[in-house]
Prior knowledge:
Layout: H1 2-58, E1 63-73, H2 75-81, E2 86-97, H3 98-116, H4 121-129, H5 134-155, H6 160-183, H7 191-219, H8 225-250, H9 258-285
Antiparallel strand pairs: 1-2
Helix pairs in contact: 1-3, 1-9, 3-5, 3-9, 5-6, 5-7, 5-9, 6-7, 7-8, 8-9
Amino acid sequence: MANKKKSGSRAKGSANAKTATVVKVGKSSKNSLLTSLKTWNITLAVVLAIQAIVILVMSKTVSLPVVTHYLTPDTLALQTTGHNMLGSAVRHLFDVNLAYLVAAFLIVPTIIHTLAVTVWRDHYKSDLNNGVNCLRTGEFILGGGLVLVALALITGIYEISLLVCLFSLIALGAILSHVLEFSRGKIKLPSWITLSFILFTVLVPWLIIAMYLKASLMYGSGLPHFVYWADTVTYILFAATAVNFYLSGRKKDRWADSTFGERIYMLISLASKTAVAWLLFAGVLR
């Protein structure tokens, strides 16, 4: 009887030891992955910063107008018909230096990657362990929003209210994605509802850009080829970001590890901003 108790206690001790070993290995592996993310963040910050500097140094000055439309009394119609009528007028507000705008959407992720390895490091690690990422949301709002504004300008969208609307929709999509990350397992709301809102806010800006592209083909002589390439490549990479977010939420296969989804997002973000920056440089800034 005593022998049985001893053997039972040994078996328990052995099982506990194995469990402790597994937990230790799991933590060690997680720490190793987080350490590798530090290297990724530093490398990407350097790569993006170098690109921003090169763009600023090598680009010529290309300014695009930002305007607003408003209604005003149409004096010509008044003289012709004798009736007061309102007509549409355009007011030039300011010009945007395209090189500065390109540099801005390269510098934004540079700052975010730098924060991830410096003052925001502990929050960054904590967020990844909890399956969320405040820095990624901020980067998508500012960096992704500026990319879309740049694409809108080269597509011919100069109305300030429309530019603000496009930026705001991208920001709203990013915020809803962040809310969905926080709400998983906490709020009993079907995920498809939030996903539908996210898709709507992200797709509408592309629908507006597509309408301008179609108008330029139907009523004009079309746009330079680099514009179509920039719009298409960015759209594909934005879609890839959405797929990565969805798979990260499902937490299946390799996406079960939040650091894997984070690395995929980093690569997509780098690819989209690099592609747009150099397509614009080759098309109009050099």
